[in-house]
Design goal:
Largest sheet: none
Helix content: over 70%
Number of helices: 15
Order of helices and strands: HHHHHHHHHHHHHHH
Strand content: under 5%
Number of strands: 0
Membrane topology: Multi-pass membrane protein
Shape: globular
Distance between the termini: 47 Å
Subcellular location: Mitochondrion inner membrane
GO molecular function: NADH dehydrogenase (ubiquinone) activity
Catalytic activity: a ubiquinone + NADH + 5 H(+)(in) = a ubiquinol + NAD(+) + 4 H(+)(out)
Protein name: NADH-ubiquinone oxidoreductase chain 2
């Protein structure tokens, strides 16, 4: 846990302050400063166990974030003049907008700038992976909402839709041959970022709902994996003494993949509803295909785990109350939360 690191609360506070400062800034200099403060606070949390894999992941993450910040500064200087205002005063604002988007997508790990995320997440502990998959995505996503709400030209809109569809497809294809759960979740994060980018292009509130649901499911999954001490997929398919931990974690993965009527399906349903109003059928089809690929290997993992478990007849529950409580709460949120939102949306539609 982060509590084993000296001054961990200070670093955690600095990380959160950097994100809030970046979102609250009214000019690009403050946005860049907030992102750098966030990076300074997050890097010490990546290496709290001082292992070789954590150090390697921290160096990779620092280089990628520095490259993203350089694109961000160059694009903001080109688009918003040397006075760091939001007004587009220069002639090359389109190129600057593309550079800013490249910088933010590099920081998040959206296709085609996704290459660093699986390798970085594969070497981190569960709590660091949780922060990387959730909190570190908030500032870049809300910054993209800020300047993508403007009236984009048609070809820019198409380019961003291609990036979103490519992220979903890459998240599905990349997770097919993975044996490590961290890398699998990293590719799942890439796929969900594609859905969020597509939601930004159509409706900012749809992105906020999708992000909230994604963070909720991710917290449940990571806490379950942390207390279950599962690192590889073979640890889930091997005979286990805790069927509650295995079945609940796999159901949470199915919710993350968007299997109806669970919680993860509601967010995808909202994005599809918003996307159909703009007749973006081709890109929606690619997004759904990426999610189906994710559901394929989640269901394969689900069936193989239960077949092995029932074959060995090991159906004992773990005695640790803390772990079981976390798992039961996550299972309740993913199943009954989706049913509740589904019923509410159905009643409102009537």
């Amino acid at each position: 846990m982060f509590s084993s690191l000296p001054f961990s609360l200070s670093f955690f506070s600095i990380m959160m302050f950097g994100t809030i400062f970046s979102i609250s800034s009214s000019h690009w200099l403050g946005i860049w400063a907030g992102l750098e403060i966030n990076l300074i606070g997050f890097l010490p949390l990546l290496v709290y166990q001082k292992s070789m894999s954590e150090s390697e992941s921290a160096v990779k993450y620092f280089i990628i974030q520095a490259m993203g910040s350089s694109f961000l500064m160059f694009g903001s200087l080109m688009s918003y003049s040397l006075f760091f205002t939001w007004e587009m005063m220069m002639d090359y604002w389109v190129l600057g907008l593309i550079l800013i988007s490249v910088g933010l997508m590099t920081k998040m790990g959206i296709f085609p700038f996704h290459f660093w995320l699986p390798s970085v997440m594969a070497g981190l502990p569960w709590m660091s992976c949780l922060m990387l998959a959730t909190w570190q995505k908030i500032a870049p996503l809300f910054l993209m909402v800020t300047f993508l709400d403007m009236n984009l030209t048609y070809w820019l809109f198409v380019i961003f839709c291609i990036f979103s569809a490519g992220s979903s497809i890459m998240g599905g294809i990349g997770g097919m041959n993975q044996t490590q759960l961290r890398a699998l979740i990293a590719y799942s994060s890439i796929g969900h970022l594609g859905w969020m980018l597509f939601a930004i292009l159509h409706s900012s509130w749809a992105m906020k709902i999708y992000l909230s649901v994604y963070i909720t499911i991710s917290i449940c999954i990571f806490l379950s994996l942390l207390y279950s001490n599962m690192n590889l997929m073979k640890n889930m398919t091997a005979p286990m003494n805790n069927v509650l931990s295995m079945s609940s974690t796999l159901i949470m993965f199915l919710s993350l993949g968007g299997l109806p009527p669970m919680l993860g399906f509601i967010s995808k349903w909202i994005v599809i509803t918003v996307g159909t109003k703009d007749m973006s059928w081709i890109f929606l089809l690619l997004l759904v295909c990426g999610s189906l690929m994710s559901l394929f290997y989640y269901l394969s993992l689900f069936f193989s785990s239960f077949l092995v478990t029932f074959k060995n007849k090991k159906m004992m529950f773990n005695k640790y109350f803390k772990m079981n409580l976390v798992i039961i709460i996550g299972l309740f949120l993913n199943i009954f939360g989706g049913l509740f939102l589904f019923s509410e949306n159905f009643l409102f539609s009537i």
